[in-house]
Automatic annotation (TrEMBL):
Gene Ontology annotations of biological process type: intracellular signal transduction; mitotic cell cycle
Name this polypeptide is given: non-specific serine/threonine protein kinase
UniProt keyword Nucleotide-binding, yes or no: yes
Keywords associated with the record: ATP-binding, Kinase, Nucleotide-binding, Serine/threonine-protein kinase, Transferase
Residue spans of biased composition, Basic residues class: 371-383
Amino acid sequence: MNTLTELPGFVTFKGAFLVKGQPGKHYFKAWDKYHYNSKEGSWFTDPRYYDDQTTFLVIELGDAGTVLEDYPLRTMDELWDIFLGTVIALAKGEMACEFEHRDLHENNICVSSRGLAEVARDAKANLRYGFSGLEVTLIDYGLSRATLYNGEVMFNDLEQDLEVFRGSDGHPQFNCYRKMRSHLFTSTRTMQKRAWHTEESRALSNGHDWSEHRPYHNVIWIQFLLGYLKKQLIRLKGPILDDLKNFNAQTVELSKRMDPRTKIENGAFESATQVLEYVIARGWVSCEQAEVVGTSEPSFLGMDNLEEDVKDELLKESRNRDEIDPKVGRSGSTTPRQRRGEAQRATTKKRDTKSENIKPRASSEEEPKPAVRRSPRTKKSAK
């Protein structure tokens, strides 16, 4: 979590503490209020069952706002900001630490208001991001995967809980889990149905496991989010439906490139980073908003469909990166990926300096490299 806390769009990590003993009465009241007022009740144990010897891990996080499921979506500007803000956050996570969320449903995206919109509307511009005043934060990394600064891979082995993949057939959220596992095992985009995801199917993994970085998993959840947001606006009815028709017309190409039936050679997205490059190329997000300085060069997918003046502006912004110190960037601070590279270079330099003062071993045999230690992660059942 420390690795992600510095990235915009990820929850702020304040600290972790071990606490021993039974919770206080205020905790009982909070649990009772949620348990008896919610439709499904609490998934957590009644705190009265804990005793004085119970030890808790308390993680303090920043306020991320309201979960998307409870947020009353009202305007197209809000839809654009939630969707594009999520794309930006996922792409930043990919570039910084090969991040995959793997569980990005409507209860793991939070929205909060940062006040008035920071962007002035220009009828001639294609810009779509920044007009609602909403800010997006991704939460709950229980199923996520990331590479730390030291090269260690943190992940949850989802094979330990196959029930994650055995939710209702046709349910959009559970389909996402099945799409991920099918892609991991077969390297295709064809989703295997619920009945396929059994213990016997583990023999079809082709040697793949959940520690691998598969950025296409983020595309799966981006497609899920787009469908979810559109459904929320359809329920409002009225004039907003005309705006939604315009939105659907504008995003035909975007939706096509996320469709699992689209081939890679025809422009299918393989990562959230490619989705970000596409929305920048369309002018929906500016380079300044995405803070792409210091990241990999964008491919500008879909530039053939853009006006010449838009192409020229995008290419100009791209060339301007070469005029900015790549180590410092436009914001005046290094990125997590840059700091990770600096740490690795510093470690290598220190090791080389130390080796100059050590006499070589008499044996010519090389010592085996230590295996990368992976920290165990707790299992999480599908909601």
